[in-house]
């Protein structure tokens, strides 16, 4: 029997959320058959089986958070008679370089772990004072012990869900939720958002400026999100300082010629920011089709990692729900984010005449380490001008 652990999904992502199991206990799987879909850093990944066999046990339910190296499945491996004879003739090989693998290469490189010799740092995980009044000793991963201390959970009362009753992080979270009713563990995109916002608050010298765009040519059925995307693209070409990345460690700034706009999308699963790459190549209808198609992917939790990467500036159209002005948060290495409030009627003076006009409140937060106040002011001025004097000359 073999234990299949969660492989390294790339880019230093240490944890994932189980979105959907594609197999059940007792099923027979083949090599590279997708067994589970997980979500990490807001992107979903299909994890294939490393070898053929019968599913004896699976660990974790849909919605549970798991870490790299944590056991996913126990598989009774199927081998042909020729394969067995080949294995018997083969000399034992060193496991020094065995490690979790990147998805897509699992069948060739995956570490096969004997269930009787589980590899969760067991030498360090076994409690020095094992419980003598239970059927099995208390065994827990180091991270689970640390988590139990932080949350005030009595680890001695927990029956681990891992192999040989190994206590893992998810067991601690479940115990904590039981002793503190109403407690919700942040998962998936919400967990990632919490980390990103904390990092931004710590790293960015954030300054917010506000302005209003008078929408003299506004029509009831106009698509404000599409108009904002076009206006941001135009403003980035007029003042490129805000369409940039900043690296504080090397004190370097990269000004981008291509405009990749991250568009914040609210969902029941949390906040997602898919990226419209090469926004300058889209016309209005193309932008709307992209938004609708991407929103459908987010609702179905099928957004890919590529769709969430390489934004050079971000748009948050929170006014579609509520709100006038805000202090939106910059996500490094980007240096700016545009926030749009709800459109309102405003009474203004035009000479000696009083009139009413639709007004769009705008808030721009920028990283003052990488942008000057003048650059930010010129950017928002260009943004307002584009919204007040829209053009439709972009092609997809």
UniProtKB/TrEMBL annotation:
Residues 1-76 form the Lipoyl-binding domain. Its cofactor is (R)-lipoate. It is an enzyme of class 2 (transferase). InterPro entries: 2-oxoA_DH_lipoyl-BS (IPR003016), 2-oxoacid_DH_actylTfrase (IPR001078), 2-oxoacid_DH_E2_comp (IPR050743), Biotin_lipoyl (IPR000089), CAT-like_dom_sf (IPR023213), E3-bd_dom_sf (IPR036625), PSBD (IPR004167), Single_hybrid_motif (IPR011053). Its EC number is 2.3.1.-. It comes from the Bacteria. The keyword Transcription does not apply. The keyword Acyltransferase applies. Keywords: Acyltransferase, Lipoyl, Transferase. Coiled coil: none annotated. Belongs to the 2-oxoacid dehydrogenase family. Forms a 24-polypeptide structural core with octahedral symmetry. This is Dihydrolipoamide acetyltransferase component of pyruvate dehydrogenase complex. It comes from Photobacterium leiognathi.
